Structure formats: structure tokens, C-alpha cells
Amino acid sequence: MIAVDGPAGSGKSTAARGVARALGLRYLDTGSTYRALTWWLLSRGADISDAGVVAASAGGPVIEVGTDPDAPAIRVDGTDVASQIRTREVSNAVSAVAAVPEVRRSLVAMQQRIIADVLAAGDGIVAEGRDIGTVVAPDAPVKVFLTASEVVRARRRTADLAADEAATVAVTRAEQAQRDRYDAPQMARAADAVEIDTTDLDLDEVISEIVALADGAGPGGRPAQTPRLRKAGAWST
Predict the structure, then answer these.
(1) Does domain 2-221 have CATH number 3.40.50.720?
(2) Residue 163 has pLDDT above 80, yes or no
(3) DSSP run (H or E) holding 204
(4) Average pLDDT of 35-59?
(5) In sequence order, which residues have a C-beta less than 8 Å from that of residue 16 and are 6 or more positions away?
(6) Can you state the percent helix, strand and coil of the chain, rounding each to 5?
(7) Which of 36, 119, 180, 224 has the most beta carbons within 10 angstroms of its beta carbon?
(8) Where are the alpha helices (DSSP H) in 5-130?
(9) Contact between 46 and 109 (Cβ < 8 Å)
(10) For residues 152-164, average pLDDT
């Protein structure tokens, strides 16, 4: 198993899918589970600033997550919400929902069941999110923490929101900073994770770095290399 953590815009989702494809592994976007619950709450007009309301709804919808890196499906009560959960409205609300302890307990348990089922079937998996290496899968043999400069992260996120005319780099950067503050409690890097700064790396380079770590896992499945910061050459998605 490979655990990939990092803040929004660091490239973890795209890189994790690429690594899963390269190694023939399954893929789990844990963030999509929080987004799915957030979308469900917003679609019902719930006050997400009320932690009590959010907590009471933690087990409300049936959330299903696919693990195919080429088609990572996400459904809520049987409805495909892959596009709906990627809007700015959901992005700006998801951190508040994810911070509620009852939500975290419910969704972390679900994520762990998915990972356990994949591993029990004899397959491997790349799981990415905010606290994979520290909470969801602390025993993952390979752990990676991706970072990038604030400006680059904002540019990447803005490109993802190209259809939203209000999503300028400046606006996205401000919204991103707010998310970073909300997400801080879940953003700790695992002590044995390798940190990779993707600011000046292109996608293939990031994927190659992670694949090399997986290929070079030492005794007990731990990376053979000492965790260190890596940085080099332009992100393309």
C-alpha cells in the first residue's frame, strides 16, 4: 500500500492515480468521501456551521467509492456525484464538515474497510488525502507527503475550476488559505513519510519519484531511503 498526503493543489490526486496506473494498483480518493457528505448536506440546505447538525448527519447518506484509477466513481444514495462534489461551493465547505469528529470517525472507518477489502483480495492500493499516513493507514509500507508553493497550488486549483469565471488565482489562493487553516489538524506529515515538493516538478517526475520509492521499499516494507525533501523541474496536468 502507498499513502499519499498533502494539501489541496499539491498534486496528490493526479499523482496518486498515475502511480496506481503505473503499478497496477487500486486507487482511493478519501477526500471524495468528505466532499460527498458535504454535497449531500448542502443539497438539503443544512447549516454546515452547526457541528451538531453535521454530526447528526454523519451516517445519513450511503456513500460508495470506486477504486478504479481510470474511473474513480463516487455515489451518494446511488447517484453519481463525481462532478457535483468538485464545485467551489463544496470545496469551500468541505473542511468545516471534515473537522467534525463524528464525521471523521465514520468516514475513516469506511476508508479503512475499503483498504482492508482491497488488501484482503490480494491487491495493492494507493490511498490519498489529508491524514492517510497518520490516521487512516499508519502502517502503510510507503508514505509520501506532497507539497507545493501557495501560488502554484492556487494556479492548479484555478485550472481545475476553469468553467467557474469567478475562480481567479487570487480568489482561489484566498479560499485555499482558509482551507489550509481548517485542515491544519489533519495535515501533519507522518514521521516516516518522504516529502516531495512538486512546485517545479512535472507530473511524470512526481509519479516516477513515488514509483521508485515503492520499488525500493526495504525490510518490513519501509522505504529503503531516508525520508528527505526532493525538488526539481514544470507541473503539467
Answers:
(1) no
(2) no
(3) helix 203-215
(4) 94
(5) 2, 4, 27, 29, 126, 127, 128
(6) 50, 15, 35
(7) 36
(8) 12-23, 31-43, 51-56, 88-98, 101-120
(9) no
(10) 65
The H or E element that residue 169 is part of is helix 169-183
Give the residue from 81, 136, 85, 66 showing the smallest Cα distance to 107.
Answer: 136
Q: Where are the domains of the chain?
A: 2-221
pLDDT digits (tens, 9 = 90+) for 189-203: 999 999 999 888 888
pLDDT at 48: 93
Cell 481548517 maps to which residue? 182
In whole angstroms, what is the distance from residue 215 CA to residue 208 CA?
10
Give all strands of the β-sheet with 142-147 in edge-to-edge order. 26-29, 125-129, 2-5, 142-147, 194-197
Interhelix angle 31-43/88-98, nearest 10 degrees: 110
Q: Using CA atoms, how far apart are residues 130 and 68, in angstroms rounded to an integer?
A: 20
